[in-house]
Amino acid sequence: FQVKSENRKTIWNPEEVPEGSEFDDTWDPREQPEYEILFKQSVGTEDVFFGMTGKDPSTACCEDIVIKVKLPETKYSDITLDIQDKVLDLRTPKKKLLLHLPYPVNSKEGRARFLSEEEILEVTLRVSRQFGFINFA
């Protein structure tokens, strides 16, 4: 049995701890808000009518993830939002959402807007994926 780390007293390597676990707090009494995950892609006539680019309606061909979070009785100034490559962390005085994202995203190029009439926070994140035989464009 060999220990791969340089420090033999460590229990695990930092690579083994899932991203976002530092945000997970089981003792936090705030409830989780309702949320919805949508996938968005930009298509043109060459996609819809001719199928020239090979895009299909699956999530493998989507460029953006849109997360809609219902935040009743919340003001825009009360929202704290932190986006990592694979984790969305949203906190308000009454609600807390730690969401592990289905795909890695570009955390630097996201957009968020708060629709105050509907009390919904809408977060749009660009999917960051490696190009393969499915998503080659």
Summarize the structure.
With 137 residues, the protein is mainly beta. It has one helix and seven strands. A hairpin with a 4-residue loop joins strand 6 and strand 7.
Give a count of the beta strands, DSSP E runs of length 2 or more: 7
How big a fraction of the residues is strand? 25-35%
What's the helix count? 1
Helix content: under 10%
CATH architecture of the domain at 35-127: Sandwich
Which class best fits the helix and strand makeup? mainly beta
Outline the low-pLDDT stretches.
none
How far do the termini sit from each other? 46 Å
Look at the structure and give the CATH class of the domain at 35-127.
Mainly Beta
GO biological process, one term: flagellated sperm motility
Protein name: PIHD3 protein
Region (Disordered): 1-26
Family: Belongs to the PIH1 family.
What does this protein structure show overall?
The protein has a four-stranded antiparallel beta sheet, with no helix packed on it. It has a domain of 93 residues: Sandwich (Immunoglobulin-like), CATH 2.60.40. It has one helix and seven strands. The protein is 3% helix and 28% strand. β6 and β7 form a beta hairpin. The mean pLDDT is 81. It is mainly beta. The longest helix is centred in the middle third of the chain and has 4 residues.
